[in-house]
Amino acid sequence: MTKEKLLRMLDELLPPNAHPTMFLATWDGRFPRVRPMALVRDGLRLYFGTGQDDAKARQITGHPQVEFVALPRRGGNTGYLRVAGRALG
To answer: pLDDT tens digits for 18-59?
Structure first.
């Protein structure tokens, strides 16, 4: 997929300033942990906020592979977008 095609898809599903709820999955070394978060998008970069001392920050530092599911709305319908990757600090 080209960068331009990915940007068009993200503009449709996760428009800038939409801040949809997402569910972030991390690994604590024993179990997966999932929690709702607010998602912020800037171009191809996706952000969520957390405190440095929060459990999810420690989990991401120890196991940076994460996955999230966002629930974007298109018209009157809600779909989902699942993304997996490496979190950067």
So the answer is: 777 899 999 999 999 999 998 888 888 888 888 889 999 999
Please state the domain extents for the chain: 3-86
How far is C-alpha 19 from the chain's CA centre?
10
Q: Where are the alpha helices (DSSP H) in the chain?
A: 3-13, 55-62
Cross-strand bridge partners of residue 67: 25, 84
Report yes or no: 56 and 50 within 8 Å, Cβ to Cβ.
yes
Exposure of 5 in the CB half-sphere (CA atoms within 13 A): 2
Q: What is the CATH number assigned to the segment(s) 3-86?
A: 2.30.110.10
Element (H, E) at 35: strand 32-38
Amino acid at 27: W
